[in-house]
Amino acid sequence: MSRLAPVLSVSPCRGLVDEKLTVLVENLPPGLPVTLHSLHLSEDNDYWEAFGHYVSDHRGVVSVADDISFGGTYTGIEAMGLLWSMRPVPDGRQQLRLRRTNVCSPLLISISVYAGHQAEGFRKLCPLSSSVIERWYVAPGVKRVSVRERGVRGTLFIPPGPGPFPGVLDMWGGGGGLVEYRSAMLASHGYVSLALEYLSAEEMASAGEEFHYFETAFSLLQEHPQVVPDRVALFGLSLGCIISLCLAAESSVAKPFCCVGISGSHLRPEGEKISEVSRLFETQADKIIFDESGHQIWRGLGLAVMHDSDKVDVGKINCPFLLINGTDDQNWPAVECSEDISQRMKAAGKEHLLTVLEYPEAGHLIEPPYSPHFRVTNFKKNVKLVWGGKTKPHSEAQEDAWRKMLAFLQAHLYSSGMPRAKM
C-alpha cells in the first residue's frame, strides 16, 4: 500500500437529501481494486446498504462522480448510486420501505472504502477509510408545527424568513397516516407545506374522510399568516392525486393556483367519501393478480375500477396541472388515466393547463430524489404489493421529476411579479 493512508472525502458532509454528493478517495496505489460502500441504520433498526466496485486511476484516485463502477448494487458512472441503490442487507428483513418519520433529525450514512471488490460481510471487514454524513429533510430555520384544528390533523412546515410564502397542501396515498418528509423538503425550498394526515386506522369511518375535510385543510393553509392566500397548490401521490384532481375540478372552496399529481387518476369516490375508494376495490378484488412469488399486482384491479366508476369532470379544472407517471406502474393504470384526462381536458379546451411527464420503466412510488427504489414492499394487513419500476430508470425518474416539480411550482407560485421570498 501507499506510504500515505488512503483519504476518503464526502461533500457535503451535512446537507439536504436532494443535494448531490461528491465522493473522492485519494492516496491509493494506482490500479487498486476497491469497493465503496454506504450503510444506514433506519429508525426501525434495519440496516440498508449499497456498494460499487472501482479501480483507482494512475494517480491513485477514485471519483464516484467520474469513474465507472464495474459491479455492486449499481454499475456505470453514477454519482449518487451509493444512495439510490440502497437495499436492506441480505441477512435483514426484506421488502421494506425506507421512510423517515422524525424529519427533525438527519439520516446518518456511513460511507467506507475497502480494498478489493467485496460483495458481502462489510461489517466484519476493516475499511481503509470511512466518513459519516448527515442528510437532512429540513433546512436550517424551517419550523415544524403540529396541526390539530377544526378537525384537521397534520404537520405544517414553515420556511425561514419573514414571508409570506406560497403554500402547498401535501397528500400521500392509500397507506394513510401522516407522512412528513416531502413537506419538510418543500419548506426547505420556500413553501409553507401542510403534510395532511388522513385515513388513520382509528378514524376510518369519521367525517375526516369526506371532501369537506380536505377543503377545510386547504382553507386552514390559505388563512395562515405566513401564506400568500391566492398562491396555494395541491400536491398528491396516488390517492392524494385523486383528491387533488377532484378538488381542483369540483370544489367550491378549494381553488388551487396549481397542482402536482403523481401516479393517480380521475376516479370520483361515491358519496364524496374517501372510504368509498376502498369499497370500490373490494367489488373488483377478483381482478388482483399475483406474480410468481405471490406478490399482489393491483394494476388490473385499477383498470376494472376505472371502467366501472364515475370520473371527475376534469374539464372544469382552471389551474395548471402537472401529472407525473411511470410506464411500469404495476399498482395503478396511471398512464391510461393520464391519457383519458388529456383527452377530456382537450375536449373542454383546457389542454393548455395540463403538462404530463411519463418516465419509461419507472414505477408507482415516485419519491423525492435519491430515495431507494422499492419494486415490492409490505403493505397493509401483510399484503405484499408490486409497485413496479426498474431501479436505475426509476431513480433517474425521481431525480428528474423532483427538479421539474420544483420548477413548475416556482414558475406558477412565484410568478406574476411575486418576488421569491428570502430564506
What do you see in this structure?
- This protein is α/β, with parallel strands linked by helices.
- The chain folds into two domains: 7-136, Sandwich (Immunoglobulin-like); 143-413, Alpha/Beta hydrolase fold, catalytic domain (Rossmann fold).
- The chain is 22% helix and 27% strand.
- The chain has eight helices and 21 strands.
- The chain has helices at residues 81-84, 181-188, 211-223, 239-250, 275-283, 299-308, 334-347, 391-413, and strands at residues 7-11, 14-16, 22-26, 33-41, 47-55, 62-63, 87-88, 107-115, 129-136, 143-149, 152-158, 165-171, 192-196, 227-237, 258-262, 289-290, 296-297, 321-326, 354-359, 376-378, 384-386.
- The strands form five sheets. It has an eight-stranded mixed sheet, with helices on both faces.
- It is globular, with a radius of gyration of 23 Å.
- It starts with 6 loop residues before the first strand and ends in a 10-residue tail after the last helix.
- Mean pLDDT is 92; it is low at 201-208.
Q: Nutshell version of this structure?
A:
With 423 residues, the chain is an alpha/beta fold. It contains 8 helices and 21 strands. About 2% of the residues have low confidence.
Q: Assign the structural class, choosing from mainly alpha, mainly beta, alpha/beta, alpha+beta, or little secondary structure.
A: alpha/beta
Q: CATH architecture of the largest domain, please?
A: 3-Layer(aba) Sandwich
CATH class of the largest domain: Alpha Beta
Total number of helices: 8
Q: Hey, roughly how much beta strand do the residues contain?
A: 25-35%
Number of strands: 21
Q: Which superfamily, in CATH terms, is the homologous superfamily of the largest domain?
A: Alpha/Beta hydrolase fold, catalytic domain
Distance between the termini: 48 Å
